[in-house]
Specification:
19 helices, 13 strands, FMN, TIM Barrel, eight-stranded parallel barrel, two-stranded antiparallel ribbon
Length: 484
């Protein structure tokens, strides 16, 4: 049976899916996909898989796809990141029997994608992308799809999409942000770009970006004319988004944890999901947030979830009539709702002193008062500050290190050459010298090697002599026997 293409593929294989759960690294695992499908999702993607690792590592294949076969989990699209046509296709061939299509990730904007040279950092390499998609379209028994980010220029974005369609892409997901729009600089996704792409290609198009609730989905379809809408962050904070409901957070969390019992996944995935689901509540109950971060078992996570539920129920019981949600939230913190990512300036005030446990700083509070000045801290520095309140990030207070005589990097305190380890290793090797400060023992090992060789020669000489004496004796005996 020939594989379906374009509209026929979307209509028959994907069952005209309008509501789509995005591929999310370590977050769109089987348990989460099943939860999302229960609450309105019609199509799901796997987490992004690394094609080269998938090709060479059987355990990676089993953990991410082979061990997760489930009849309820269809239709399903497997997403790969790759930058080599042969590697991409060989990995896809190993995955095609477990899914309905293979997706090429051309949208990841993170630094790891830049270092690995994949995702959105391939969007200028059109020749390479054409070869990858052409080969996949020729070799695979399932359709090939792509997820992209836009260029600032709409016309270039349209030409990009048309190139992918011509190469053999059968469905295109367009994230309406550029690769530079991420984190606090994400801003608003451009539906104008998505609309332009939808009008310019003849294959189905999914839109991604600006989706926080069901009304956003409906508005996006109406304005852009796309076949479906994909959600990532909106789905993580409210997996019932496509149902148009805002359930109690603990109900969704309990349901998810029950699915995890049946379809286990790494505890880090579970913890990350609860941090998203409980995002607003954990700003209030910071102590339990720390407990959730430290817990080591699924049962421990269930206990934390149970305690959060009890605290919320107690808060609801003590609620005054007519009381409204705090901090400008549309609903009370114990209800699933969108999380609006703050901009760079807004981040320093988000939930900084809110909640019932006063004096505990919010997760994203960025204002640090040191020496009477406010300093903006990154998220990683915030976490370090929470673990060690006395920690200072003032550059002037950092210890001063003596520099390597060779390259200027900090030298080893006990280095005999006054160098950093790298320079010391090169010099010690060249001069056959030792440096106890860096644990380099080239001279010692060389001397031991010479000693060993000398001993080996001394051992071999008696053995050879003894063997020769035996051979002479045997010849003498044989000769004597022959004479007699």
């Amino acid at each position: 049976m020939p594989k379906l293409r374009g509209e026929a593929f979307w209509r028959e294989t994907l069952r005209s899916a309008h509501y789509v759960v995005a591929p999310m690294v370590d977050q769109s695992e089987l348990a989460w996909r099943l939860l999302s499908r229960r609450h309105g999702a019609q199509l799901c993607y796997t987490p992004m898989l690394h094609a080269q690792v998938f090709l060479r590592d059987a355990n990676y294949r089993r953990e991410n796809l082979y061990g997760e076969a489930c009849a309820e989990d269809r239709p399903l699209i497997v997403q790969f990141c790759a930058n080599d046509p042969e590697v991409f296709v060989q990995a896809a061939l190993l995955a095609q029997d477990y899914c309905d299509a293979i997706d090429l990730n051309l949208g990841c904007p993170q630094m790891i994608a830049k270092r690995g040279h994949y995702g959105a950092f391939l969007q200028e390499e059109w020749d390479l992308l054409q070869r990858m998609i052409l080969l996949a379209n020729e070799k695979l028994s399932v359709p090939i799809t792509c997820k992209i980010r836009v260029f600032p220029d709409i016309d270039k974005t349209v030409k990009y999409a048309q190139m992918l369609e011509k190469a053999g892409c059968q469905l295109l997901t367009v994230h309406g942000r550029t690769k530079e729009q991420k984190g606090p600089l994400a801003g608003v996704a451009s539906w104008e770009h998505i609309q332009a792409v939808r009008k310019a290609v003849n294959i189905p198009v999914f839109a991604n970006g600006n989706i926080q609730c069901l009304s956003d989905v409906e508005e996006c379809i109406r304005k852009t004319g796309v076949h479906g809408v994909m959600s990532a962050e909106g789905n993580l904070h409210n997996p019932a988004l496509f149902e148009g409901r805002n359930p109690l957070v603990w109900e969704i969390a309990e349901e998810y944890l029950e699915i995890v019992r049946k379809y286990p996944c790494p505890l880090s995935y579970v913890r990350a999901h609860l941090f998203k689901l409980w995002h607003h509540t954990l700003q209030v109950y910071q102590q339990l947030r720390e407990e959730l971060a430290k817990v080591k078992t699924l049962e421990g996570i269930i206990d934390v979830n149970r305690e959060l539920k009890l605290r919320c129920q107690e808060e609801i019981a003590n609620q005054k009539e007519g009381e409204k949600p705090k901090e400008g939230l549309p609903f009370f913190h114990w209800i699933c709702q969108p999380y609006i990512r703050p901009g760079p300036k807004e981040r320093c005030r988000e939930n900084g002193d809110s909640g019932t446990e006063k004096g505990v700083r919010g997760k994203r509070a960025l204002e640090e008062e040191e020496d009477g000045n406010s300093e903006l801290l990154s998220k990683n520095k915030q976490k370090k500050k929470l673990r060690n309140p006395n920690k200072s990030f003032d550059p002037s207070l950092k210890p001063k290190y003596a520099k390597c005589d060779q390259c200027g990097n900090p030298k080893g305190n006990k280095c005999v050459f006054n160098m950093c380890r790298g320079c010391c290793k090169k010099r010690a090797f060249k001069e056959v010298a030792d440096c106890a400060g860096h644990g380099l023992l080239f001279k010692t090992k060389y001397e031991k090697s010479l000693s060993w060789q000398h001993n080996q020669r001394g051992i071999q000489t008696p053995e050879i002599s003894q063997r020769r004496d035996v051979e002479v004796g045997e010849r003498a005996v044989l000769k004597e026997a022959g004479d007699s």
